[in-house]
Amino acid sequence: MTDTTSAPRYALRGLQLIGWRDMQHALDFLFADGQMKSGTLVAINAEKMLAVEDNAEVKSLIEAAEFKYADGISVVRSIRKKFPDANVSRVAGADLWERLMGRAGA
Question: How high is the pLDDT of residue 97?
């Protein structure tokens, strides 16, 4: 049986990114024990990775977020290249927000 309430983190360009296997894994992780985890959730794509390197204020804000995860396919591919055994897939931020709102309103 696969644990769906925990997720590995991968170091990429100074950020610790959550690696979800798929959308369901993301939802199970965020709603562990039947309650939504509390904190800031940031979808990390290539533009944000570059912004972190170029802008200290953006870097500080993103580093302070409790949940940073791979959104952009280039970020996912970078994780897969750096960590060949990583079982990580892109979870699109817009789709995740929609599913989170649907679950929160249920």
Answer: 92
CA distance 93 to 19: 13
| pLDDT at position 42 over 90 | yes
Whether residue 14 is contained in a domain is answered as yes
In a domain, 17, yes or no: yes
Q: What does DSSP say about strands 67-70 and 41-44: parallel, antiparallel, or unpaired? A: parallel
**For 101, what's the count of Cα atoms within 13 Å in the CB-facing half-sphere?**
6
Answer whether residue 99 is part of any domain.
yes
Q: How many domains are there within the chain? A: 1
Which residue in this structure is represented by tokens 């925990």?
6
Q: What is the pTM of this model?
A: 0.88
Domain that holds residue 17: 9-104
* pLDDT tens-digit map of 65-80: 999 999 989 999 999 9
